[in-house]
Sequence to fold (278 residues):
Amino acid sequence: MRIASWNVNSVRTRLEQVLAWLEQEQPEVLCLQETKVTDELFPREAFEQLGYQLAISGQKAYNGVAIASRLPLDDVQIGFDALLSGDPEAPGLSQQKRVISALIDGVRVLNLYVPNGSALKSEKYAYKLEWLACLQRYLAVQEQQGDPLCMLGDFNIGPEARDLPDPERQSGGIMASEPERQALKAAVADRLTDVFRVFEADTGHWSWWDYRSGAWDRDKGWRIDHIYLSEELLACATGCVIHKRTRGNEQPSDHAPVVVHLAWPPADDDGDRDDDWP
Fold:
């Protein structure tokens, strides 16, 4: 199973690019962020013609998340309040369309668009930290469900110095401040692993290049699009790659797709696929 994450920065603007990538790469699952379209205007038919089912949660001009899958989508859950029904902050933090999940072939795929935060003294930064604290509570409940978990999306955080092109200058600023990093670390805890770092330890691997300041031409990107796996899935991971070339498209998204390859369902004791998993 191949599961991909891509912040497309408007699915309607980038539709032909997304469809061309899907036809070439054929992932079983594609999770989109920043779709920027209400549900009734989402270009559903174009995905369905390629054999993808859809689960969507969108809003006009901002945010928006979607899951496109060649495999059946079961138990779709939208927003933090899908699991945190008694949490006083979850309904308010779910108003922006940033959280969607579905059960796909026994895997809980959780697609997130984490707030950017704007600036350290901004109200949006405080909102981002509140959002990440809610994510921590959400994941604690999700863990109790017992499903193998693949959490992915645009996290708007470079977790470590090696995820930034100029860490001496950029560490401590927005998307690389210690409170953001610690909030993400607390949410992930020991339940999930950043799978890209299992296969690639070096710096210089970016998933986002700012439209401003010639970041793409100078290859000064950030790694802010992540895929996290629970222990069961990590044992099945055979690779994780960033499809950098898409950022070189004409009028591209500022993000590139990130794809994890999983040998899923796992083999049984005889080396055969376990069709009854899980």
Summary: The chain has a mean pLDDT of 96. The radius of gyration is 18 Å. The domain at 2-262 is CATH 3.60.10.10 (Deoxyribonuclease I; Chain A).
